[in-house]
Design goal:
13 strands; six-stranded parallel beta sheet; Rossmann fold; 15 helices; alpha/beta; seven-stranded parallel beta sheet; single chain
């Protein structure tokens, strides 16, 4: 059993991913900054980089291992014991699978526990008609067992409200945010340290290799630049689609793509690049784009929920419809070739970050949520 402080609230975070990605990063930032305020436990897979760090920080008595993106009946019953033994008062679930674990625990075993559910993207367009109906029915049913929904973007909340998932009084929008970091290293020096070319325009995609992120479209865009030696596409990340991505690059025989895998210093790659590119099919509120804004990197991104709240068209970047990669190509060329345009987008990116993604505000909002939901009893 956890050695907890009796004057602190006991919180369990549940996620079915603890590798590289926005939701695990979000949980990690909360844990780092509210660790001293609460008795924190985690139920998650043990993956690099976040899962292993949480296990190290919290210890085995405060960490419950769950399978990656899979519901296990055996683990569910063992998690029930973990929750009871650790006297958990709040379960904060992140992502669809985690939300099922949390709300079934409340329904079947622990009705007094408070359940907070952060969706990190409500992706109903990813399903066929039958799947969509089933998913909507599931979420509407489970919403009764949810004390508070947190949406990471206004667009995400609008979709939930349009589909009658919950009443607005049960939901709150809290933007993802990151601590501001200053970067003073010269771009050319940084490229030398990272072994990147110093005389080409670097188009960066910092992403998880998944269907959602649609890296195939990034490769298709790069292919349209294959005869222009000025441009090089740098893809940093890892994930379940990695083999497919490698195969596609090989089949197209593209020499203008650097596939670098996972890196533990992603900010260096943002600083070394010229333009950020995202071709996602859908998003929650992508941390990588927020980081790009922080460093003043203009972005060319698909016009989907989440992306279009971080990037405002012709203010700090350009938006294109998912299937219009020719427009994305045009935008990349315009931004890279027009110095005045580039400078304006870069200045506005930093301004947009400071005005909308203040880290202290996010942490303060989460702190208020946890304290407020307990006081509501």
């Amino acid at each position: 059993m956890i050695n907890y402080s009796e004057n602190k609230i006991n919180i369990l975070f549940i996620t079915l991913r603890s590798g590289w990605g926005g939701a695990p990063k979000h949980i990690d930032l909360i844990i780092q900054n509210l660790f001293s305020n609460y008795n924190i436990s985690v139920a998650a897979p043990i993956e690099e980089p976040y899962g292993t760090e949480w296990l190290k920080k919290l210890g085995t008595e405060n960490y419950f291992k769950l399978p990656h993106r899979k519901f296990s009946v055996l683990k569910f019953f063992k998690l029930r014991t973990f929750v009871k033994n650790n006297q958990i008062q709040i379960i904060h679930a992140h992502g669809k699978g985690a939300g099922i674990y949390a709300r079934l625990l409340k329904l079947l075993f622990i009705p007094k526990v408070k359940v907070i559910f952060t969706l990190h993207g409500f992706h109903i367009d990813a399903y066929n008609l039958l799947q969509k109906k089933g998913y909507l029915l599931l979420e509407k049913s489970l919403s009764i067992l949810t004390d508070l929904f947190i949406n990471v973007s206004q667009g995400e909340q609008n979709i939930c409200l349009e589909n009658n998932i919950y009443k607005k009084s049960k939901a709150k929008v809290i933007y993802n945010a990151i601590p501001q970091i200053e970067q003073h290293t010269d771009k050319i020096i940084l490229r030398g340290k990272l072994n990147l070319p110093d005389n080409q325009i670097l188009i960066l995609s910092l992403t998880r290799f998944s269907y959602m992120k649609n890296i195939e479209a990034t490769i298709d865009i790069a292919e349209l630049f294959k005869d222009d030696s000025k441009y090089i596409f740098v893809i940093v990340g890892d994930g379940e689609e990695k083999q497919n991505i490698e195969n596609k690059i090989r089949e197209k025989n593209l020499k203008n793509i650097l596939l670098l895998g996972y890196k533990n210093n992603p900010h260096d790659y943002i600083n070394a690049s010229d333009i950020f590119l995202s071709t996602s099919r859908w998003e929650g509120l992508p941390y990588a784009l927020i980081e790009a804004c922080m460093y003043g990197l203009p972005a060319v991104v698909s016009d989907v929920v989440g992306n279009n709240e971080v990037i405002l068209n012709d203010y700090n970047g350009r938006l294109f419809k998912q299937d219009d990669i020719l427009l994305a190509v045009t935008f990349i060329k315009e931004i890279s070739e027009d110095e005045n345009l580039y400078h304006r987008l870069s200045i506005n990116a930093k301004k947009h970050f400071l005005e909308n993604f203040a880290f202290d505000k996010m942490i303060s909002s989460m702190d208020q949520v946890y304290k407020g939901i307990i006081k509501s009893d």
